[in-house]
Amino acid sequence: MKIKVFLLSLFLAINCEAKIPSNQDDICLMLDENPRWEKPLVTTYEKWGAEPGTVMAIIRQESSFNPNAKPDREKVLGFIPWKRKSSARGYSQAIEATWEEYKKETGSRWARRSNFSNSVDFIGWYLSKAPGAGVRRYEADKLYLGYHEGWGGYKRRTYKNKDWLLDVARKVKFNSIRYKRQLTNCPIEKPNRWWNPFD
Fold first, then answer.
1. Could you give the CA distance from residue 91 to residue 65 in angstroms, rounded to a whole number?
2. pLDDT by residue (tens digit) across 29-61?
3. How far apart are CA 156 and CA 6, in angstroms?
4. Which of 32, 126, 133, 146 has the most C-beta neighbours closer than 10 Å?
5. Residue 190 has pLDDT above 80, yes or no
6. Does domain 21-182 have CATH number 1.10.530?
7. What is the pLDDT of residue 187?
């Protein structure tokens, strides 16, 4: 009986977390659908300085808020499924090597890419390295270029001749600004800590 209750709880938890927002143009509606997303967004801002609007814009671009997102498989002979193009997974589409680096550096041993809180923290951690590449926290387009190309690639300007990527970066910037403006109508409140409900 206990095992059944545990499995049911696990199933419900997974399904609650995996709810993909129906309107991804409105951050207020997204947070209404997924109120548990507010706390990790605030925590990541306090911890890493990553703006909630920018984090959400990156997740939208990378996975459309699908916790199980993966790159398409390559096709052999045009129709036989083969290997995936990269090891990217989850909300953040972090590749395996960078995810392992994040876990090691932050001590987040059990972090999963399909977990929203873990993915938000990962993005915050990654964006916190932006000053080393001369990028400021409000430059969402440049933050995305560094996120996509890696900070080493950003400094080498590997994005320079990738017009499609520059277009995507501008789209991320647009969504980041839009989300930031929308949040004035539904501000994310700092979560109360259980040991101090008045904090």
1. 6
2. 999 999 999 999 999 999 999 999 999 999 999
3. 50
4. 146
5. no
6. yes
7. 92
Other CB atoms within 10 Å distance of the CB of residue 162? 14
Query: From the centroid of its chain, how far is CA 136?
Result: 18
pTM to 2 decimal places? 0.83
Q: Which two tokens stand for residue 127?
A: 């964006």
Residue 100 tokens, joined: 């392992």
- The gap between the terminal CA atoms of the chain, to the nearest Å, is 40
E-assigned strand segments in 2-146: 73-76, 80-84
185/69 Cα distance (integer angstroms): 30
Instruction: State residue 54 phi and psi, 5-degree precision.
Output: -70, -45
CA distance 135 to 154: 10
Residue type at 137 in one-letter notation: R
Torsion of CA 85, 166, 173, 17, to 10 degrees: -10
